[in-house]
Design brief:
The complex is a heterodimer of chains A (262) and B (242). Chain A has 262 residues and is an alpha/beta fold. Chain A has ten helices and nine strands. The longest helix of chain A has 18 residues. The chains are: A alpha/beta (262), B mainly alpha (242).
């Protein structure tokens, strides 16, 4: 198992962002779904070793990220695309990817080819020498994905990776995800249900800091059958049905009155 | 359309051998063309720090230059006015602590655009910060020492302010690398400076003795050199063991 999380909590002031999440997953593409504020980003940031949990156990790639040495080893093998990608506007795409390759402590001799490979994989070869400040939102997102995959990570964490991508790029990106998931554990946080259906073998749905469903996209789809839940596609109806059930269980009201909007 | 596509379409000869992997060839070319390649300063830094990542971080974030300049100008201006008004060298007394806090903020989540990403990197973001701090102060101190040969005023600024700041920075970096904790390093540096100011004050009876006593210049320089050497040795040891 590359990710072993047990009863993890994280609080920011009075807000309980993650409230007792347990998760185990190995290689493959894992989708993390949920409405805004469900706790997906916080869970991903904990897996990225950016914020520590307040309680519970986290083991990544067989190591405890609480210790300096193991954390460093994890980070060498980690790829992370934050929800809000920060960048230095004066850097070119290649400089940006190279910069983070070096900060991941890749052997310097391997860096140039790894950078070229990563940039080509996200189809940004034509913009490799363009300054980041000149790129569109979708291109910036792809530059962020390139820095995340430059070290061929064993654990790849992507927060809303398809935000800003056009439909053609999203289809290409799903292919890249499936490709990466053959060797690595890829965890994709998104609120776009169709991305999960197309690329993920496993999916978890979060609501109010908790995982309220975990299974395959097919199992999530089955939850929506015959419920009359909102949604244009079967998977969306499954998503809405699970979410409605979770909200009604929380409020003590029947699912029909708790609302199904995501 | 990617540049690879263009190259492939434009340059693929009809008689291209079937066993030639054009993707592979292109990646080799792109790797050479796109790579920034370290300059002389970066190569030197990489050798001294034994970390290409730290060296790149040190020489390669020009977008943060404005933040540095503004912070320095504000601290200098405020300190100079306070000093002129009271006759007490507040700049020298508080600059190490103020600069540390200001720089930490400049590279924190508020201003550093890539802060979130840097947090997940193998090269600690705070180690990057400490190396930058040391580099800036060391360069300033070196320039000040050079200027001191020509001007008495420059000597006062250099020995009363820049040299102590360099010493505190070097001590901070050394503690951070030895303990493998940038937080411990920063705490050590700030605590050491506070202890120095207070103990020299109680011995000499002057609040400003820590920055005005010529007898302390050599100890400060010794701490700066020792701290740098310890950090250099400790960085090497970490590299081999982690």
């Amino acid at each position: 198992m590359n990710v072993e999380i047990s009863d993890v909590t994280r609080r920011f002031g009075r807000t309980q962002a993650v409230a007792g999440v347990s998760l185990r997953t190995g290689p493959g593409v894992f989708g993390l779904l949920g409405p805004n504020g469900a706790g997906k980003t916080t869970l991903l940031r904990m897996m990225a070793t950016v914020v520590p949990p307040n309680s519970g156990q986290v083991r990544l790639l067989g190591r405890d990220p609480g210790g300096y040495g193991p954390r460093k080893e994890i980070r060498r093998r980690l790829g992370y695309l934050p929800q809000n990608l920060g960048y230095y506007p004066g850097f070119t795409v290649a400089q940006f990817v190279e910069y983070f390759a070096l900060l991941k402590e890749m052997p310097p001799g391997r860096v140039p080819e790894a950078v070229a490979t990563a940039i080509e994989r996200v189809d940004l070869g034509g913009k490799a020498r363009a300054k980041l400040r000149t790129l569109s939102g979708g291109m910036l997102r792809r530059a962020g994905i390139a820095q995340a995959i430059v070290n061929e990570p064993e654990l790849l964490l992507l927060d809303e990776p398809t935000a800003g991508l056009d439909p053609e790029q999203r289809v290409a990106f799903r292919g890249l995800l499936r490709d990466l998931g053959e060797k690595a554990t890829v965890i994709v946080s998104t609120h776009l249900v169709e991305d999960v259906g197309a690329a993920c073998a496993q999916v978890a749905l979060m609501n109010d800091g908790k995982i309220v469903f975990q299974g395959t996209p097919g199992e999530l789809t089955a939850r929506g059958e015959g419920t009359g839940a909102a949604g244009d596609a079967p998977l969306e109806r499954g998503y809405s049905a699970v979410l409605a059930a979770a909200r009604s269980a929380r409020s003590g009201r029947p699912a029909g009155t708790a609302g199904t909007a995501a | 359309m990617t540049s690879r596509d263009e190259i492939t379409r434009d340059s693929q000869p009809r008689e291209c051998p079937p066993d030639v992997d054009l993707d592979r060839v292109w990646l080799g070319v792109a790797a050479q063309v796109w790579s920034r390649g370290p300059g002389r300063a970066e190569r030197l830094a990489a050798r001294a720090l034994r970390s290409p990542g730290l060296a790149r971080a040190l020489v390669c974030t020009p977008s943060l230059l404005l933040g540095w300049v503004i912070a320095s100008a504000v601290v200098l201006a405020a300190g100079t006015f306070a000093t002129l008004g009271t006759g007490t060298p507040y700049v020298a007394l508080f600059a190490p602590a103020v600069a540390g806090a200001g720089i930490a903020y400049a590279y924190g989540p508020g201003i550093d655009p890539a802060w979130e990403l840097s947090q997940s990197m193998a090269v600690s973001d705070r180690m990057v910060l400490l190396v930058r701090v040391l580099a800036v102060f060391a360069v300033n101190a070196a320039l000040g020492l050079t200027a001191s040969a020509a001007s008495g005023a420059a000597a006062a600024v250099t020995f009363g302010w820049l040299v102590p700041m360099t010493a505190v920075s070097a001590l901070t970096l050394a503690a951070a690398t030895v303990t493998r904790s940038p937080v411990a390093g920063a705490a050590t540096g700030l605590a050491a400076w506070a202890i120095t100011v207070l103990s020299v004050h109680s011995a000499a009876g002057q609040v400003t003795a820590a920055v005005s006593s010529p007898s302390l210049v050599l100890p400060y320089l010794a701490v700066a050199v020792a701290g740098s050497v310890i950090a250099w040795l400790a960085t090497g040891r970490q590299k081999g063991t982690s």
